[in-house]
Structure formats: C-alpha cells, structure tokens
Amino acid sequence: MTKSIFLAGAITLATALPAAAELVTVQSQKSVGETMDALQAAVEDAGATVFARVDHAAGAQNAALELNPSQLLIFGNPKLGTPAMQADMKAGLYLPLKVLAFKDAEGQVWLTYQDPAEMLSGLDIPSDAAFISKMQGALGKLTSKAAE
C-alpha cells in the first residue's frame, strides 16, 4: 500500500511540473550591449514597442554579486499579441515577448527566446493560429538581424 501511495504521489508530482520550455538560441559575434542595441533598433524599426530593457548584470552588481553580462528586452506588437489574448486571455501571462542576450562562461554571446508555439501550447489557442507563425517569424528575423 505504501508503494502505491508513493507511486501515485510521484506520478502526480511529475505531471504537475511544467515541461522544459523549448528555447531558440542564436549566436552573436557582438558584445551583449551591442547585440541588445541592435535588437532594440530592429524591434523599433519593425514598428513594435519596446516596453523595457533589463540589465541583469547591473542588478547583480547593485546587490554586490557577480553575473556575466546579461540583458533582457521586453517588446510587443498589438497586431500579434491581441489576437493571442482574444483566443485566450491567459496569453497575457506570456506577452509581451522577451529576448535574452547573455555571455556564457566561454565568453560567447547568445540571444535566446522561448518558441511562441511552445510558450502558448498549454492555452486554448489552436496550434496552427496564424499569429503564432508570425511571432516565430518576427523573432527569427529580429534576432538574426541583431546577431549579424
């Protein structure tokens, strides 16, 4: 009996934990700051709105901690985000979109973001919704341009 209770608990816990998010990663030949400047310019040139740029390393430094250069850009376009939220308001938990630029332990700079199809997969949104492929295309183009 104890074994079956333990097994039931383990199964419940395993199914309650979120799956690892699928991340898309793009290599950059620039510094984190230059990469993020290029990404911000590309986002603004595309007509999207930049809501925030978070410097994680500066935050760590303010707390007397060390962290490799790392910045997060938060941006969106209501033409893409609104249809997602019309399909399921909980999409607002994942929007606006976010892209992280960071320098790894070997000194390589990367841009990374969560695939919108994966990000919105647990919601009441059809997997073939046009706005998902548009988000994927926009993120791919913007990060590629920033990494050039």
Verbal overview:
- By secondary structure, the protein is an alpha+beta fold.
- It has a single domain (20-147), classed as TATA-Binding Protein.
- It has 6 helices and 5 strands; from the N terminus they run αβαβαβαββαα.
- Strands 1-5-4-3-2 form a 5-stranded antiparallel sheet.
- Strand 4 (97-103) and strand 5 (109-114) form a beta hairpin.
- It starts with a helix and ends with a helix.
- Residues 1-19 have low confidence and may be disordered.
What keyword list fits this structure?
alpha+beta; 5-stranded antiparallel sheet; DUF302 domain-containing protein; 46% helix; 148 residues; globular; 5 strands; disordered N terminus; TATA-Binding Protein
Strand-helix topology:
Layout (H helix, E strand, L loop, with lengths): L1 H15 L6 E6 L3 H14 L3 E7 H7 L7 E7 L1 H10 L9 E7 L5 E6 L1 H4 L10 H18 L1
Helix pairs in contact: 2-6, 4-6
Organism: Leisingera caerulea (Phaeobacter caeruleus)
Protein name: DUF302 domain-containing protein
Keywords: Signal
**Low-confidence segments, ≥5 residues, pLDDT <50?**
1-19
- Which topology does CATH recognise? TATA-Binding Protein
Shape: globular
Structural class: alpha+beta
What is the CATH C level class, in words?
A: Alpha Beta
Helix fraction by DSSP (H/I, runs of at least 4)? 40-55%
Main β-sheet, spatial strand arrangement:
1-5-4-3-2
Which sheet architecture does the biggest sheet show?
5 strands, antiparallel
Element string (H = helix, E = strand):
HEHEHEHEEHH
Output the number of helix runs.
6
Instruction: Please tell me the overall pLDDT.
Output: 89
- Approximately how much beta-strand content do the residues carry? 15-25%
Number-wise, the strands total: 5
Total domains: 1
- What is the architecture at the second tier of CATH? 2-Layer Sandwich
Rg measurement, Å = 18 Å
- Ends distance: 60 Å
Protein name: DUF302 domain-containing protein
Domain DUF302: 54-116
InterPro entries: DUF302 (IPR005180), TT1751-like_sf (IPR035923)
Pfam family, one: DUF302
